[in-house]
Amino acid sequence: MRDHGRKAGGIQAAITRTIAMRRLSVWILMFSLATGCRSGPQTAANSRASADPMHPSHDRRWQPTLAVLPTAKIKDDRIEVRNIRNCLYFTEDAYVVRHYDKTYRLDDIESVDFIVVPFKETANLAHTMLSFGFRGGDYLAVSVEARLEEGETYSAWLGAARQYELMYVVADERDVVKLRTDHRNVDVLVYRTRVEREQVGELFVDVMRRVNAIAKQAEFYDTLRNNCTTNIVAHVNRIRPGRIPRSLSVVLTGHSDRLAYDLGLIDTALPFEQARANARINDLARQFADAPDFSARIRR
Predict the structure, then answer these.
(1) What pLDDT score was predicted for residue 52?
(2) Alpha-carbon distances of 106 from 109, 144, 238, 270, rounded to whole Å
(3) pLDDT of amino acid 37
(4) pLDDT on residue 96
(5) Fewest CB within a 10 Å sphere: which of 19, 34, 162, 222?
């Protein structure tokens, strides 16, 4: 009878722990969904002044760094990307906004890197980006963000309520990396993906088509369904259907690099924790901040 009692008590304790873990998972999931991917620091929810807040629009008074939408002209094997952002930052809030146009050949695409920017507040969350590498050392970064108006600050709750427009920031890699390493003081992890060169070209074209679609028709950013990571997953799965399955790591974006590792999308030669440590490029980004071959240097 005593043994039976201990066994029954053990079963009950296991059931209690399982229920507690499930409740904790729900709370983590709800928190993550409510926090999502951010283009800037999170602050208290702010009011949104808009003539028509019920419909997405490109006609608002945007923050200067987010005011100009990129577009792409796709013709045969050439893609002319217009309005590539290349800001000169003195601080996060003091900068000179600059843009340029550049034509890329699909035959020159050599790689695509997965960039993860973990949040300081919680290891479960991160902002994610892609960076395409071209022959000759050029890199072009793509960051899906909430497009903020002048005087507006990011709120995850307003993002979940579809109170921001969506923007694809297409930028010189130095812009998006140094903004985060130098002025937001957050870690930047750069992972080389394991994608065939032909598929990298297909991915780039798919991303540029999405850039054009957004420029043509505004969309709402959605913390839950239309953010940085969900868009990257959609791009990959359009090129290789089902390549990234549904996973909690797509929501808990701080684990997205682990998911990519487990799926073999990034190099698995090293144990994951060592690969993650090697992916951190903050020190190199500061050391070679003004180097003409900045992108090559941070990948040494």
Answers:
(1) 60
(2) 5, 22, 18, 31
(3) 52
(4) 97
(5) 19
Mean pLDDT per block of 10 residues along the chain (300 residues) reads 40 41 43 45 41 81 97 96 97 96 97 95 90 96 96 82 93 97 96 94 98 97 89 96 90 91 96 97 95 93
| CA nearest neighbour of 143 among 81, 87, 207 | 207
- Are the beta carbons of 146 and 166 closer than 8 angstroms? yes
Residue written as token pair 């201990």: 6
Q: What is the 3-state secondary structure (H, E, C) of the chain?
A: CHHHHHHHHHHHHHHHHHHHHHHHHHHHHHHHHHHCCCCCCECCCCCCCCCCCCCCCCCCCECHHHCCCCEEEEECCEEEEEEEECCEECCCCCEECCEEEEEEEHHHEEEEEEEEEECCCCCCCEEEEEEEEECCCCEEEEEEEEECECCCCECHHHHHCCCEEEEEEEEEHHHHHHHHHHHCCCCCEEEEECCCHHHHHHHHHHHHHHHHHHHHCCCEEECCCECHHHHHHHHHHHHCCCCCCCCHHHHCHHHHHHHHHHCCCECCCCCHHHHHHHHECHHHHHHCCCCCCHHHHCCC
Contact between 256 and 128 (Cβ < 8 Å):
yes
Distance CA 17, CA 19 (A): 5
CB-count exposure of residue 171 (10 Å: 0-12, 13-18, 19+)? buried
Which residues lie below 8 Å from residue 110, measured CB to CB, with a gap of 6+? Answer: 133, 134, 135, 197, 200
pLDDT at 223: 82
